[in-house]
Amino acid sequence: AAGVRLPGYESAESGFAAFTTMPLNAWLHVAFTVGLLEAAMRDATGEAEFAGDFRNGYIDFGWDSQTDAWKKNKRNLELNQGRAAQMGIMGLMVHDQLGNIGDIVPALK
């Protein structure tokens, strides 16, 4: 779905240029979505087993039946994958500012 844009975002540029080219209704959409996620994705029940546990006593998928060592390993894996993703995004942001993002992602030329 490369190149597909949501309604209202058709004229927005990519990268940091989007900050100046996004229309107001697109900014309102972003603010509403972030606000909705902040309200919904939190420890609303106080049952969190650890920081970042947003199950709210609702969904398990077998997590509670695993050992503490297994849980710790899975949390560490998730944290490390998140850190790697953040470094990848940071690299794309740096190349966007350097002006050579098209060399990294040819679709953005």
Explain this structure.
- It is a single chain.
- This protein is an all-alpha fold and 109 residues long.
- Helices cover 51% and strands 0% of the residues.
- The chain has four helices and no strands.
- The relative contact order is 0.09.
How is the topology of this model organized?
Layout: H1 18-21, H2 24-40, H3 68-98, H4 101-104
Spell out the key features of this protein.
51% helix; flat; 109 residues; single chain; mainly alpha
Brief summary of the model shown:
With 109 residues, the protein is mainly alpha-helical. Helices cover 51% and strands 0% of the residues.
Number of DSSP strands? Answer: 0
- Contiguous low-pLDDT stretches (5 residues minimum) are none
- The gross shape turns out to be flat
- The proportion of residues in beta strands is under 5%
Radius of gyration: 19 Å
**Assembly state (oligomeric):** single chain
Largest sheet: none
Indicate the mean pLDDT.
86
Based on secondary structure, the structural category is mainly alpha
